[in-house]
Amino acid sequence: MLWYQLPPKDVLSTLETDDQGLSSAEATKRQATWGENAISVRKTPAWERFLKQFKDPMSMILLATAMVTGLLTLFGAHLLPDTMVILSVVVLNACVGFYLEGKAENAIEALKSMMVPECMVLRDQGLVRIPSKGLVPGDIVELEGGDKIPADVRFIRLHNAQVDESSLTGESVPVTKTTNAIEGDQVVPGDQKNMGFSGTYLTQGTAKAVVVEIGDKTVFGEIAGMVKAAAAHSTPLQRKLARFIKTLIVAIMSIGAVNFIVGIYLGYEISYSLLGAISLVVAAIPEMLPALVTAVLAKSGNAMARQNAIVANLPAAETLGATSVICSDKTGTLTENRMTVTDVFAAGQAYGVSGVGYDLHGQFSQDGAPIDAAANPALRRMLEIGFFCNNAHLNDEGHSIGDPTEIALLISGAKAALNKDRQQRVEEIPFDSSTKYMAVLTDYEGERYIFVKGAPEILLEMCTSATDAEAKETELNREAYLEAARTFARQALRTLGFAFKRVANDHADLLHEDLHDLCFAGLQGMIDPPKESAKQAVANCKSAGIRTVMVTGDHPLTAQAVAGQLGIPAERVLAGTELNDMDSERLRREVEEVSVFARVAPEHKQQIAAAFQANGHVVAMTGDGVNDAPALKQADIGVAMGQEGTEVARQAADMVLADDNFATIITAVEEGRHAWKNLQKAILYTLPTNAAQALLIMGAILLAAFVPLFGERFVLEPIQILWINLLDSLLLTLPLMMEPKERGLLTHPPRDSKANIIDGLFIQRVILLGIAISLPGFGIYYLFGSPAVVNGELINPLLLTQAQTAAFWAILFAHFGYVFSARSIDQSVFSFSPFSNKWLLAGVGLSIAIRLIPTFAPATSSWFKTADFPVIWWPVILLCFLPSLLAIEADKYLRQAWKRLRPRRGF
């Protein structure tokens, strides 16, 4: 059934009058029609999911690179090891993708595990225990406190029954159920008081109910369907990289083809032109870019994990940095998920109560001034009633068992130093939804009392007096207490009234008829309070340009009150019933205006996330319940709670908060922005240097018609180009990721999610640095290699090899000049210490050492096609450090100057 629909009336009309249960024969017949009470899952074959990974653009460019290096191997370039390494990267990336794609099916498996193994059911006019998968619509099940509900059921008999639906609706308080019919065609789950949903718990009382939906038709079954059907959204980074890679493939292949055609046109041999085209492709393709991206994200993921944000999907580490909207569940995420008494009213006086959750440390105050509750007779009497008319249990460490409301009353009493050992209960009238009160007969301090707690309006009708400041009986002012209760309600506090009566010490029975002429002692108001850390986190999100939106299944007034305390705009609240009437276009408009959504169903959460995404936002969705799983998968990044969250939510999420702290998200956002900065630095270093090597090949083809030297050999051999690319990636680009976090990452809005990697800055630096790095290579090769070719004839092959080796070193130093400045995208290299990144210094040193291997091990010279050259060449080669450094510094200076001029020019 749909989330908001009630059970079919024709089913109930035939079953509510039947208290004998189904016969075994009828149950078997119905099971043949409806199937088993289990969530069905059609798993995608493993081989199909694995092969799918090779269709990813990243894998395609890697495979293309492997093909190129394989072709070069055929030409004698000895690149078989490189080909094998690249193919290994492709397989590794496929394995990672294969693992991540299995997360959705793992989420559904977690849902299936929440099905109840066995249950008590009426069959053949007798009560029997059967596996829950054998339930069929029409079965009558019997439940008692602590039982998990085995299917979606309609209650037909109840006794003091309450159900914990927090994992489904997000409401922290157990729901009191009823057998009354509910009118309406569209009623959200939280308002279906006569229904029990599969996987939720009966916290107290007993119940008899008829099964109306099983398996895939249950609420959990619908969740499984939504989790499975929800599109596996790629992150903004993945989308950008996909576009970037496709553009890069087209550009490189096109340039390579043009280079081949130009070579043929200029009259070069086909083999020379083909080798030039292949060399250009090898030079331009950033073989290690996928590994660099993974390394950046892995480093960021590790940093987040150290701060309790565990990333399950690596691209999510960067996605947080681009997040513009965080849709957060309320219960347990923004709030403590522990009911807490915050306000009390006794003897005409209002008091505040400090302390949050199950913390026993706290104090009472009046008008901001602390008071001693134990020395205030009226306040103490009211607290005693809530403390002793109570079935919860609490120890000195704050560990508790029982109903959250009763635990809150125990803790408020403990803050007044009350001790449960000082009373002995004689008799009890349990809480009942029809009477709306609970009463106990107890011996306390040598006297016998009736203590009663319940709905204030009900208790006030039983009272004829009230306590005064000394806890003595005085005239009852009902309107004053009712107005205090209304004030609490406007603050979204759950309010209980407390009354008592002194009885004879031999009074042994407790009957409803005894509950008259009571003395009203006061009110206690409680709420699931917001976390202090969440308040600061919401403020930090605002300063970082991130909007916080509350999406909860709780009551609208409660959501509005909590949102106001957190600093989330709550002038207007949209309820799930209103969302049912909205089309997607209207919802897209509403989400830009409304920041609090209450009484929502799981499909509503998905729709809200999708509406924000349609408006161009990058959406993070937090949650901890089963009901959150579909929305966690829908969002750009799903964030689940690690401590209180369900396994279903954790399996569906991209990131898990180990401390269940909303504030951890803003810390992770900062790490995400830092990851993007480092990734941007890596790309802005890698691509311009690759472009420079591609220009060396293109230039050689074009200059060969005018300078015979370039017709003999390229400036760099293909093996030397690969050597530069691979070592640069490992020894120079990776250390760029070790740059310390820049200041002010959380003081500006998130970057535009629609912005591409290829932007004006990227294109400018590729061209500028491509020229600044390639020109020294051309110059050194021409300067030292020209004497090797006389009248178009190669007379000294060794000298030409030496010139290539010198150009090889010239390109290396040009890269050094660039990499030091590339540590910041817009700040000058002279504005920070050159020693602040020791990893980069080590990388430069190791890079030089590795390139000296042929010098100290001459046998390896033939592998890399190098030769020792005269020492007198070194001063000129060392000067190649400057062009790239000066070019990038001039670019930064001009950009900063332009930013300063723009406001003055009125732009």
Automatic annotation (TrEMBL):
PROSITE patterns, A to Z: ATPASE_E1_E2
Location in or out of the cell: Endomembrane system
A GO term for molecular function: ATP hydrolysis activity
Similarity comment: family membership: Belongs to the cation transport ATPase (P-type) (TC 3.A.3) family. Type IIA subfamily.
Origin species: Thiorhodovibrio frisius
Membrane-traversing stretches: 58-77, 248-268, 274-298, 682-707, 719-737, 757-782, 794-818, 839-859, 871-890
GO cellular component: endomembrane system; plasma membrane
Residue stretches in coiled coil: none
Membrane topology: Multi-pass membrane protein
Sequence ranges assigned to domain Cation-transporting P-type ATPase N-terminal in this UniProt record: 2-74
Protein name from the UniProt record: P-type ATPase, translocating
InterPro entries cross-referenced by the UniProt entry: ATPase_P-typ_cation-transptr_C, ATPase_P-typ_cation-transptr_N, ATPase_P-typ_cyto_dom_N, ATPase_P-typ_P_site, ATPase_P-typ_TM_dom_sf, ATPase_P-typ_transduc_dom_A_sf, ATPase_P-type_domA, Cation_transp_ATPase_P-type
Keyword Nucleotide-binding: yes
NCBIfam families assigned to the protein according to its UniProt record, in alphabetical order: ATPase_P-type (TIGR01494)
Primary site of residence: membrane
Entry superkingdom: Bacteria
Pfam families: Cation_ATPase, Cation_ATPase_C, Cation_ATPase_N, E1-E2_ATPase, Hydrolase_3
Key words of the record: ATP-binding, Magnesium, Membrane, Nucleotide-binding, Phosphoprotein, Translocase, Transmembrane, Transmembrane helix
Any GO BP annotation: potassium ion import across plasma membrane
